[in-house]
Specification:
Oligomer: homodimer
Largest interface: A-B, 18 and 18 residues
CATH topology of the largest domain in chain A: Alpha-Beta Plaits
Distance between the termini of chain A: 19 Å
Structural class of chain A: alpha+beta
Strand content of chain A: 25-35%
Radius of gyration of chain A: 19 Å
CATH superfamily of the largest domain in chain A: Pseudouridine synthase I, catalytic domain, C-terminal subdomain
CATH class of the largest domain in chain A: Alpha Beta
Mean pLDDT of chain A: 96
Shape of chain A: globular
Number of helices of chain A: 6
Number of domains of chain A: 2
């Protein structure tokens, strides 16, 4: 029995999120089906971050145990042959038996993509938030700086979270503008439920002039979800990368 | 009764092509349904180029007659409210009563997109040809030059075409490489059935070293479809623009 680590990308548009569910098509469901078709094994899988319905991944990490005699890097091609085209394994190898994609993660990076053009919406409707409002990008960039640091992010956590502590350290949060695209990138040692989408929704309110950038500080201090902006929709969100001390 | 001209973009992934069909979901079917919902009119529509199943448009042009009292440029927003998100009207205005999007077109431009990376396939599977073979791009670019000019393109025309003449003038054909993308752009006064896809399939054979660039001349001269390469798949093809002397 050896532990397999996979790095994968998926277009979340057609799935009810990562986590396996009865009577719903999920990324985990498709992965476990592909593994059972390939190796005949019924495995239990853990992942780095359970993405919600409609959320995408550029570098999700999962791990499971297998006794199949498949060389580590061969799992990539072998599984892709059994996976739908919107879920693709990018890398695979064997890792130590106690590797846990979630608890061993040093940090995770998400991006949130906004298409700022009236054109190309037909193509990006499921892959970005399409928004052509007037936004003050400079103010939004200023607001990002208040997100960085070690804070209680309770105000940016959806209700129903099972988190025991709301303190997280955001090592990096910035917003880049390029052509018609606005991309928010955020890295932290952990994320609360809907945290990136609520931060994005709040930054949009700053861009509209509803909040000043410095008001972010007040929202953080309040620990009050009702002070932060609305939850931005799932289709702009991508789990970009999960970092580990050792691979 | 006034003639409305629409410029539209659509993601063709979920449609059985542009042209209306019984018992199949088509772009024209969706457009005519949206118009009837908006204005109560049952109209007959003509388009600049009938794209096949899975083919996209960045600037398809259609025209139809309406007696609705809607200002020309308002058709855009009004129709978008009734259209699915993967079909979007970009521009609308009234044109002269005898405007014909197909026969009045001076030239049309298509692009064909190839993603040359193993990553991001999950996102572009329906929006580009995903190909990471070793290709000699320089040779393909050289081959493009042989496509340009006034030729009989019979060797690049799928059987079943109703074309009376196979002569077309390609004013421009080039291949650009940028990051992981290869984009072929081609402009002509008209296109035969599957012409762009067969040209692309032939350029790929050149890239693989199967044909020399100069062999394109021979294929053209032969007027023999079996000498040209295979038809490239639909998902990389976009009708980019239709040009008219007067708008």
């Amino acid at each position: 029995m050896k532990r397999v680590k996979l790095v994968l990308e998926y277009d979340g548009s057609n799935y009810h999120g990562f986590q396996i569910q009865k009577n719903a098509d999920t990324v985990q469901g498709r992965l476990e089906l592909a593994i059972s078709r390939l190796s005949g094994e019924k495995i239990a899988m853990t992942c780095a971050g359970r993405t919600d319905a409609g959320v995408h991944a550029l570098g999700q990490v999962v791990a499971f145990d297998s006794s199949a005699s498949i060389p580590g890097e061969r799992w990539t091609m072998a599984l892709n042959a059994f996976l739908p085209e919107d879920i693709q394994v990018l890398k695979s190898h064997y890792v130590k038996a106690n590797f846990n994609p979630r608890f061993d993660a040093q940090s995770k990076r998400y991006i949130y993509k906004i298409l700022r053009n009236k054109n190309r919406r037909a193509f990006y409707r499921n892959l970005a938030l399409c928004n052509s409002e007037n936004l003050d990008i400079g103010l939004m960039q200023e607001a990002c700086k208040y997100i960085e640091g070690q804070h209680s992010f309770r105000a940016f956590c959806a209700s129903g979270s099972s988190a025991k502590t709301f303190e997280r350290t955001v090592s990096n949060c910035f917003l880049a503008e390029k052509n018609n695209w606005l991309t928010m990138e955020i890295e932290a040692n952990g994320f609360l439920y809907n945290m990136v989408r609520i931060i994005m929704g709040t930054l949009l309110e700053v861009g509209r002039g509803k909040y000043s950038p410095a008001y972010i500080e007040e929202i953080i201090r309040s620990q009050d979800r009702t002070l932060a902006g609305p939850t931005a929709p799932p289709q702009g969100l991508y789990l970009k990368e999960v970092k580990y001390n050792e691979a």
